[in-house]
Amino acid sequence: MTEISHRTRSRTAVVTGAGSGVGEVVARGLAQRGHRVALVGRRRERLAEVAASIVQTGGTAKAFPCDVTEVAAVDALKVAVLAHFGAPQILFNGAGIFGECQTIAESTPEIWLETLRANMNGPYLVCRAFMGEMVRTGWGRIFNVSSAAALAPIYHVSSAYQLSKIALNHFTRQLAQELAGTGVTANVLHPGEVRTEMFAAIKADAASRTGPGREMLKWVEKVERTGGDPAEKTAELVLEMLASENDAVNGKFLWIKDGLKPPMPSW
After folding, report:
1. Contacts of 47 (CB under 8 A, 6+ apart)
2. Can 161 be counted among the known catalytic residues?
C-alpha cells in the first residue's frame, strides 16, 4: 500500500453507506489511518454500533443518520458535519442499491425509480453539499462508487442499476471538470465482486424469479465459488489515492488491485 503523505493525515471524511459492506470497511480503514470519520446512512442503530467500535479501537467517528436521497436531509447533514468536524476533505459515496432482477416490462415502478434516486440523486446531493467546503480547504478527494456494469454490455434485467451507474460516471466526469485546478479531485471506482448485503439481496431476488431474472444466479454462483473480492481492497484503493502522487488523478474510473474482474476500457 502506498504510504500516505504527511499533509493528508488527520483529515475529515464523510462516508455514506457506512453502516455495512464496503462503506463500513472504508470508514474503518480511514479511521485506522487517523482520519476523523462522519458515518452516514439510514440505519441509526447500526451507524452507532460502527461509531462505537471505531472509538473503542482509538479512532474518531460519529454517526450521522441521513437519507441521502432527500434534499432537506442532506442540507441538515451538511450543517451537522460542519458543526462537529468542520469541512471534510474526503468524501466516499458508498450508499446504493441494486433494485430488482427484472425486465423493464415486468419491473416495479417504485423500485425502479428508488434505484435511480439512491444511486444517482444521493451522490449528487452529497457532492453538491460538501464540494464548496472542500474547495475552500484547497485539497480533497471525492470517490463515487460505480460498477463495472456501467461499462458492460446491456443486461436485460438490471436496467435501473446499469443506468444509474452510467449516469453516475458521467456526473463524476463533469464534477471533475468543474473541480479541475482547485486541489479537489473526483473519481469513480469499481469495488469488485463483494459479498455485501446488496449481494445477498440480489441472490434472494434472483432466486425468487422464474423468468429472465433468475439468470442472475449464474453471477451469484460465480462470486460464491471464488469467494468474491474483499471490501478491504476498496479501502486500500481509497487510502492509496490520498497520497500526493495521485493529486492529478481526476475524472477517472478506478479499479481495485487484482480484482476478480479485470479492468475494462473506460476513458
Report:
1. 18, 19, 39, 40, 41, 63, 64, 65
2. yes
**What CA–CA distance (Å, rounded) separates 46 from 61?**
13
Q: Which of 182, 171, 170, 161 is nearest to 128 (CA)?
A: 171
Query: How many domains, in total, are found in the chain?
Result: 1
Q: What is the CATH number of the domain that holds 160?
A: 3.40.50.720
CA atoms within 13 A on the CB side of 11: 25
Nearest of 72, 82, 99 to residue 202 by alpha carbon: 99
Q: Does residue 198 belong to any structural domain of this protein?
A: no
For residues 250-255, give the mean pLDDT. Answer: 98
Give per-residue pLDDT as tens, 120-148. 999 999 999 999 999 999 999 999 999 99
User: Would 177 be classed as within a structural domain?
Assistant: yes
How far out from the chain centre does Cα 45 lie? 20
- Distances 108 to 111, 126, 158, 159 between C-alpha atoms, Å: 5, 27, 12, 12
Boundaries of domain holding 146: 7-192+231-255
Q: With respect to residue 226, please indicate whether it lies within any of the assigned structural domains.
A: no
CA distance linking residue 113 with residue 69, whole number of Å: 11
The grid cell for 193 is: 465482486
User: pLDDT (tens digit, 9 = 90+) per residue, 171-197?
Assistant: 999 999 999 999 999 999 999 999 998
Residue of 161, 199, 253, 255 marked active site: 161
**CA gap 159, 123 in Å, rounded:** 19
CA distances (Å), 75 to each of 64, 66, 114, 144, in order? 12, 10, 20, 19
Residue 101 resides in a domain: yes
From the list 134, 259, 155, 263, the residue with the least C-alpha distance to 206 is 155
CB 59 within 8 A of CB 37: yes
